[in-house]
Design goal:
The chain is α/β, with parallel strands linked by helices. It contains 15 helices and 15 strands. The chain binds nicotinamide-adenine-dinucleotide.
Amino acid sequence: MVSRVIPVEPFDLVIFGGTGDLARRKILPGLYRRFLSGQMPPEARIIGAARTDQDDAAFRNFVGAAIKEFVPKNRCDPKAIDRFLAQISYITVDVRGDKGWNTLAKMIRSDVVQAFYFSVGPGLFGDIATRLNDYKIATPLSRIVVEKPFGRDLTSAKELNAVLAASFEEQQIYRIDHYLGKETVQNLMAVRFANVLFEPLWNAQYIDHVQITVAETVGVGGRGGYYDKSGAMRDMVQNHLMQLLCLTAMEPPAQFEPDAMRDEKLKVIRALDPVDASDIVRGQYGGDPSYLDDCENPASLTESYIALKVDISNWRWKGTPFYLRTGKRLKGRMSEIVVHFKETPHSIFDDDAGRHANILSIRLQPDEGIDLRVTIKEPGPGGMRLVDVPLDMTFADALGPEAKDVPDAYERLIMDVIRGNQTLFMRGDEVEAAWAWTDPIIERWQARRDKPKTYEAGSSGPEDALMLLHKDHRRWREIKA
Ligand code: NAD
């Protein structure tokens, strides 16, 4: 396979929060990888902007160290790193004050794409947008990239949308959800919409149910205080799991084009039923340290785990539930969408031949890939015995080793911003619709002071989550250690 890298136009990319954790672990190493693959033109410039007082050399040292820490050794060519660093500079800016803004205004070129990445706490998003406008830095060629969380409820999301809209058009606003930048998520679009095999079966008539899991092994650790104000519903379900659900459930758009895609996702969110209290299980991990220790709040009612059954009221999905679950300190780290098809309506084989249903799994991590379990005859003598085997559609095997070197979600999404492609970014109305569905669920458990169930650290979550599927005669996929 020959990889096809399309260089982008020259650009100025300002990373507000350039000294932060996300910039260090994801954004800057990702940009280096794009540079290595020839996508970053020599005229492109990356400008770190943060509160720390330091010069270009100090920031370049920081970026060099981040590359060495987060990019595989075989790609850390010292000469390439030096060439990359030569395109990087730094400016001290207080996004809440005046410091640095006039200097930044002079630095930014008005005749190239300007991308402003808001990699700072959500409380600062509005300040940056407003100052970019007040200091006349923003032009029609400007784009802003807004990190999560986008609000904490419908009211705050609307307020944030309004603040951003006062300075930028919707076509200039890129609300990032890095799950959408994953290779497999886009492959889900290809599997669904570029094959004739799946789409005719992609509905309640043939699909029994769908499971979407995002399991983490880590606890809330050092960010317990922040997490405790949020919880799994706000931190994961409202955004990431919701986006995965939308891509699985949406109607085929007429084109693979930003607004066509986002219109279809929005329709799914608007078709979601309210969730019954009995269809939600919330949990907090026990152990040492437990969730309550990590968040330093012994009375916390915030969930570090949630499982819920979601129904979509439309022609395609009525009767096919989507089960979502996500949690911290679980047995394994995995993210997947699993589509469980129905059994054949009738089996022509003896009962002891066995019976299996087709299962299509789309793994986002750890090993990105797609496989379809199909039923075949167990080879050899002994009569007709059926087994299910995976038809592995993992790209690396089929397309050669180069396919394994897929861009990380962040690097792909940043390049999409520079190219002006909003397909994999959330639109303002989508985010608001997701909060409109989420808010009543959270408000209900807050009103009842609902206490999450304790689950053992390193387990698959609370026992009650198993029951959520058992009562429907179904079983969760195993979370592998
Ligand atoms: P961080 O606390 O590590 O970094 C914050 C950055 O903001 C620093 O560079 C700091 O100098 C800068 N900053 C703070 N106040 C400032 C001010 N007044 N003026 C100028 N700069 C200021 O945070 P982070 O973990 O890098 O997260 C950044 C954003 O990305 C947040 O919105 C977070 O929710 C989101 N996010 C982070 C991660 C992650 O893995 N770290 C993952 C997903 C989303």
